[in-house]
UniProtKB/TrEMBL annotation, chain A:
Stored Pfam families: BPD_transp_1
Species for this entry: Vreelandella glaciei
Annotated protein name in UniProt: Putative 2-aminoethylphosphonate ABC transporter permease subunit
SUPFAM superfamilies assigned to the protein according to its UniProt record, in alphabetical order: MetI-like
Source domain of life: Bacteria
GO cellular component: plasma membrane
BP-aspect Gene Ontology terms: transmembrane transport
Residue span, ABC transmembrane type-1 domain: 73-270, 351-546
TrEMBL record, chain B:
Protein name from the UniProt record: Putative 2-aminoethylphosphonate ABC transporter substrate-binding protein
Gene Ontology biological process terms in this record: thiamine transport
Name of one Pfam family that matches: SBP_bac_6
Gene Ontology molecular function: any one: thiamine binding
Signal peptide, first to last residue: 1-29
Organism: Vreelandella glaciei
Keywords linked to the UniProt accession: Signal
Any one GO cellular component localisation term in the record: outer membrane-bounded periplasmic space
Amino acid sequence: MMAESLIKAATKPSLESLIRLLVLLAGVALLVVGLLFPLVTMLLKSLQDRAGDFIGLANFAHYFQTPALVNSIANSLRVALMTTGVVVGLAFLCAYGITRTCMPGKRLFRMLAILPILAPSLLPAISLVYLFGNQGFLREVLAGQSIYGPIGIVMGMSFWIFPHALMLLTTALTNSDARLYEAAEALGTPKWRTFLTITLPGVRYGLISCLFVVFTLAITDFGVPKIIGGQFSVLATDVYRQVVGQQNFQMGAVVSVILLLPAVLSFIVDRWIQRRQVAQLSARAVPWQPTLSPLRDWVFALLCYAVAGAIVLVIGTAVYASLVQFWPYNLSITFEHYTFQGMADGGWGAWFNSLKLAFSVALVGTLVIFFNAWLIEKSEGFRPLRQGLHFMAMLPMAVPGMVLGLAYIFFFNQAGNPLNWLYGTMMLLVLNTLVHFYTVCHLTSVTALKQLDPEFEAVGASLKVPFWTTFYRVTLPVSLPAVLDISVYLFVNAMTTVSAVVFLYNSDTRLASVAVLHLDEAGYFASAAAMAVLIFLTSLVVKLLHAALTHVLLNNAQRWRQAT
Amino acid sequence: MMPRRLFPSTLLASAAALASTVLASNALATELMVYTAVESDDLQKYAERFNAAHPDIEINWVRDSTGVITARLLAEKDNPQADVIWGLAATSLLVLEEEGMLERYAPEGVDNLDPKFVDAAYRDGEDPAWVGMDAWVAAICYNTIEGERQGVPMPTSWEDLTKPEFEGHVIMPNPNSSGTGYLDVASWLQLWDEEQGWDYMDRLHNNISRYTHSGSAPCSLAATGETVVGVSFAFRGARLKSQGAPIEVVFPEEGLGWDMEASAIVAGTDKQEAAQTLMDWSISREANELYNEGYAVVAYPAVAQPIENYPVDITDRMIDADFQWAAVNRERVLTEWQRRYDGKTEQ
């Protein structure tokens, strides 16, 4: 086989280069069709009337003259800023506890803290109604304030965004230079001063980046305000109401453009910070190790476990809600709600569709995204094309799910579009979800690939092995842990996302996350909780399998990582 | 050697198999795209009963609230996706007919139905554009436990709901998205004159804690004690009460607004034969017996049996509803409603 490819490569040297060009073009085409064309179509729609005639900014003028719509901008900013404050504050303290103290039970805390990522954002909203609603067992805590509105939205969002912030800040706080702290100690600097002059500046980029990530997630989230927002309107729910409730697609496009602005802004800031952060930590830095300090360690342990307790309480409430016969008047336990009486196809069909979607996205997405990243990082030639692909791979992060979903309706549901047949199919859902979560996977791939010696490709080329063989035989297996991370990330997100796909399913491709929304909207609260729990458990099982697989892999096939 | 073990061909094979199952569609039966606003807990039952008679036709449901389905049909006017509408408010179907979106067809046995339940054009010798299934009737769901605890008495009339003691305790559906909401609004405007009707809604609005999207939700929220009073419809109230919810289903004394659930073929469908088969079945005696499991008043005379938690004299208490008026004024009334009250609509 080796000899065969050697001969091929030797006799047709330009063929490999041609194939390389073609796969690069395919990668570019994927993002052009799956991202750029839909977004451009949406921007154009916001400038058209219902009949499709160009009317300039008239839609925007109408938008800004409608107080009910404009109010949502302030509402969205308000809850997003509050959520950012709560989440970043708590996550910083917890991350500090993990990295800079000797608090007991760090591993358990990190495991519990990650749980919210496995649930759709609808789950905390449902739980909060059971906890703080008019019949909630903790309703006194709110002292007469209603959970339906900004309070509920901030609580629900904080729950599911917390793990994202914790991961970012833990990474930021891990990189520290012990020499600075030793110097400070030697000079007799007080602790608070050390914190202000060494710790904070050391994490400033990570902290700012985290602020913007949390803010973006909060301002674009749809699930939490949909369930628990009450009369409190935000931009994401306005898009849904305009499009689904009133079928006013033009106004939906206008709100989407407005929703796109803060996300794009925070994307630009984040890019700018990433560029400045390079080489902050010198190669000679010595990792700092915390020393025992019982009082401090226990204070942080208490704080962290209070947070973990809240997370477990919210998830536990959802599980309980799904099992109670008739809340709050008949508290006997039943599995009846898992038959999803309130749904036409019994609900399990939707769950199965979600599984299909999640597996397809995990499989196809991982290969496509990782392969594209590899082409960008490790191949020679076609520089402008590779840079263009990299730039486009970064864009999806700035596009909120609601916006992407609506853009897909506009682009793929056009009568003249040759891709029109994709509309309403599972394939379109796969494409949409793949593009929606592209950026994080791309960055993970790039990071993993940067750790590899570029000589692999050079040696492969000098041995006249075609590039895809090098990829398949060397790069992919060596990067397997990262590849698995990507696939599980895609799986979990495909399972839990609701914002983009809520516009794109049809009767054959209903998804579990969308079912949660519909069940709740129609008043089947217990069944909605049951479906949310089902999604959570599915993600949890896959995540555990992933952890086990990674563990086995690292012990067997990846021993070289611990070499010398 | 390592890569061979890690990437066995079986993995790729299973990947291909998975991809093909994702792509595959079952092309065994004729598939009908059916738009509906029928209560979702009954949809499966409807399809099953129909398929017992016609296993060769597969129904693909698109279900949403009345207002959403209506808006969706109107938005798709130039490129209709639905083949049949089975179970949508007559007031909505009248709007669609006005737009020329319905295909006239006289289902087999249409003469068996109560003439009130058939498009009036049929009496003038034309094929009907739509045929009725059943009537759904306004009702109030009142949580007896919460009512006592929070000092909110049981209402007996629509007027009661505007009293100060109900402030913040009433939830009703948004008529823009919910058919039940629209029949409430339309019935108040017909029951009194328009000016008085809006005046009533202004006063009611003061007591409303929020407007929901679905017509069932207010009753579900009353059933779980999230609110004391939910303005909803008899079907949901009766069903929740049977499931053990501590609610009373109140039928206000001024009279009950109602609308008809009806069916029609969407003009331009290329599945005429299957669509007509479904229409024929949808007005059969068997189908009407099915409707009667949830609704007390159905199109087929003498089929209706009394239903648990419904008053026996319900037909006498239904107002003399003018669907034509409700359809012609639909857009105007909804726009006015939105202008006045939309601020309390849930997201």
